[in-house]
Design goal:
The structure holds two protein chains of two kinds. By secondary structure, chain A is α+β, with helices and mostly antiparallel strands. Chain A contains 19 helices and 20 strands. In chain A, a hairpin with a 5-residue loop joins strand 8 and strand 9. The longest helix of chain A has 22 residues. Chain A is globular, with a radius of gyration of 23 Å. In chain B, a hairpin with a 3-residue loop joins strand 2 and strand 3. The chains are: A alpha+beta, B alpha+beta.
């Protein structure tokens, strides 16, 4: 890509529900690619040392991991077109080792990237309006949201629009590119938290006030890692037009007062804790009052203009029920089982959202081959207006499927082995890459996930156990959110060997909670047995309709601990 | 006697390298040269010069032991680096390449 005149709009319909770039966006992105190309050339020629180059490559999503460079590509708020998916599959095939890894921040990572090819990859991604900018570094990262955005039946506002506004506000923000530490924002479009907002530096929950007007409740200081904290509410009600002004106020307070002397105390959660939530909220309110309403106001016409840049699926006027769907449900138990776990209600009559599991039994959570990504792109075209979403649970969603077509879609999932009916069940494991790939990890997480998945492979048993979120991180940085898994597993280094701590009782939803430690660290091969014993206690003591997390909250840790420690 | 090997990543593609006889960087861990404490100092000095020449980055020593006749890193982390992801052993550098590499 050597000039703006060569930049063409990406292939694909303008109806696709992504934010559609214009010439200005593409020119900016092209300049960023060329800037990075020059930086890479200077590095390769010795004009930049590694210390000088590292912050530059990180701002472009390029890490040096355990085996090679890793490129983290942003999928803005998890929404991706089929054209963009095909480009990702192409990158996996041409530049990587034929697969990608979908992450808990709704991004995709390529694990075997060559530095010398990174600018070409970014140029290819820019052809379809995607990039890796601000997927690393001490800046505001990819804003995440509900994977059912714009489709969910319980939605108050479409969170994609506000996530995009936040993306534009935070990208290349002159004050916020060198924050004390990385900064993550998540928001939901309904009062149901499907984006784990209380685990983010800022969490935004959409709600209505007493007059029925939509607005936001704002949480700050959530985060996991070494010091897990559930975010605290600092604003019960924020009107929509004040969103940017309030975000600016929070970031200014953090940027000015956040610690830069200690990496482990630099996140906003530490500032909120040390300042006190009430006092921190007062500081934000004071800054909010100082900021110009004119400059930061978000008027309805601006929101409408952003909304208009999103493609709008042309939904058909359909009845709420489907005879074909009902017949398939009655005659095909496997399909009915899949529908029971892998679908979500849609706001439009006759439509439904389908979740494609990237968690086959014994598979690597979140990994997808280039062939699978291409297949999902084709299914998105055929069944969901050319669009898909990446869930923070490391699965993929086709948001707008006709009920009439759901059975046909399900049949087409099978050849690609992406039809596992396990969403929200014990084998829908969230796992980070762990020591198999990650420079920071202390222990492997994927093999433990595989062992548990294989142990609980029996679908009838999984469905009997019911909703259970199991998260495995390979180190205290907690990329797999182990603190908030109903069952959380943390890999640690115990005298040079891998060992695992298990916690119970975490939750990532609107009732977010941190798990409690079950006992001492154990070797990997013991973990599935201990999980078995924990599950047995749940099954023995649950009441009618009680989920694992409900039983844990009622029973407390004692019976589980006793069972886990039994020999 | 404590033994170590020297490792780095190649600048241009990030590939894991092991310092072998020559001295030359190799992609296959089996070709890594073990060093005692005195020899390790010299090997790390060679590595530092290679960093200055922009060929490699992140040079450091890895403790190893003889295990049934072959060298093996002591730490789990370095075993994964030496042999590739345990969940995708087909992807490790040493599994697909066994050639002398000019860094």
């Amino acid at each position: 890509m050597d000039g703006i005149s060569h930049i063409q709009p990406p292939a694909g319909s303008q109806d696709v529900g992504i934010y559609h770039y214009d010439g200005l966006d593409r020119a900016w992105l092209a300049r960023r690619v060329e800037e990075f190309r020059e930086q890479v050339q200077r590095r390769m020629a010795g004009g930049l040392t590694e210390d000088e180059f590292k912050p530059l490559r990180l701002m472009n999503g390029l890490y040096l991991q355990l085996h090679a460079y890793m490129l983290r590509v942003a999928i803005p708020y998890g929404i991706v077109s089929s054209t963009q998916l095909r480009k990702m599959a192409h990158v996996a095939r041409k530049y990587d080792r034929d697969y990608g890894h979908f992450t808990t921040r709704q991004n995709i990572q390529f694990n075997w990237i060559k530095l010398e090819q990174a600018p070409d990859i970014l140029a290819e991604l820019a052809e379809v309006d995607i990039h890796a900018i601000q997927t690393s570094g001490n800046c505001i990262r990819n804003v995440t949201t509900d994977q059912f955005a714009g489709a969910a039946a319980d939605e108050i506002i479409d969170p994609r629009v506000y996530a995009e506004i936040l993306r534009q506000w935070s990208t290349d923000h002159p004050e916020f590119l060198f924050l004390p530490r990385k900064f993550k924002i998540a928001l939901t479009g309904s009062e149901k938290d499907r984006a784990a907002i209380k685990l983010h530096d800022i969490g935004i929950l959409t709600t209505r006030n007493e007059h029925g007007e939509p607005g936001f409740t704002v949480y700050v200081g959530g985060g996991l890692g070494r010091t897990p904290v559930i975010g605290v509410k600092i604003r019960q009600w924020l009107q929509v037009s004040d969103l940017l002004r309030y975000m600016e106020a929070i970031l200014r307070v953090y940027n000015a007062a956040g610690r830069r002397d200690n990496l482990y105390k630099a996140r906003i959660k530490i500032l909120v804790r040390e300042t006190g939530a009430e006092k921190f909220a007062e500081q934000v309110e004071a800054e909010f009052a100082r900021l110009s309403g004119d400059r930061f106001n978000l008027p309805p016409e601006v929101v409408s203009a952003i909304q208009a840049r999103f493609g709008a699926p042309r939904f058909a006027n359909l009845p709420a029920t489907s005879t074909a769907f009902d017949r398939a449900m009655l005659t095909n138990p496997a399909f009915a089982q899949w529908v029971g776990t892998n679908t979500h209600p849609h706001r439009m009559p006759g439509y439904i959202s389908a979740v494609i599991s990237l968690k086959p039994v014994g598979g690597i959570p979140g990994d997808a081959s280039s062939a699978q990504i291409d297949h999902i792109a084709a299914l998105a075209d055929r069944y969901s207006f050319g669009e898909a979403r990446v869930a923070h649970e490391q699965n993929v969603v086709l948001a707008h499927v006709r009920l009439d077509d759901l059975f046909a879609l399900w049949q087409e999932l099978q050849p690609a082995a992406i039809d596992t009916p396990n969403i929200g069940l014990i084998t829908d494991i969230i796992a980070c890459p762990g020591l198999d790939y990650c420079e920071l990890a202390n222990a492997r997480s994927i093999p433990v996930a595989q062992a548990i998945s294989e142990r609980f492979a029996d679908l009838a048993r999984q469905h009997d156990i019911g909703e259970l979120h199991l998260n495995i991180s390979g180190c205290i940085n907690a990329c797999a959110h182990h603190h908030v898994g109903h069952i959380g597993i943390l890999g640690v280094d115990k005298h040079g060997e891998e060992a695992y701590l298990i916690s119970l009782g975490g939750a990532a939803d609107e009732n977010a909670a941190l798990g409690q430690l079950l006992g001492a660290a154990m070797p990997a091969h013991v973990v599935p047995d201990v999980i078995e014993r924990v599950i047995a206690i749940y099954l023995a003591h649950r009441t009618q309709g009680e989920r694992f997390i409900d039983s844990f909250r009622r029973l407390g840790m004692a019976p589980f601990k006793e069972a886990a420690n039994a020999r | 006697m404590k033994l170590s090997v020297v490792t780095a990543n190649r600048l241009r593609d990030g590939a894991i390298l092991w310092l072998g006889a020559g001295p030359a960087w190799r992609e296959h861990f089996a070709e890594a040269q073990p060093f005692d404490a005195d020899a390790l100092v010299i090997a790390l000095e060679f590595g530092a010069r290679e960093v200055a020449l922009q060929r490699v980055i992140g040079v450091y020593a890895v403790d190893v032991e003889h295990n049934t006749g072959t060298l093996s890193p002591l730490s789990a982390r370095e075993r994964v680096r030496a042999h590739g992801p345990s969940v995708r052993p087909d992807l490790g550098y040493g599994q697909t390449h066994n050639t002398l590499v000019e860094a």
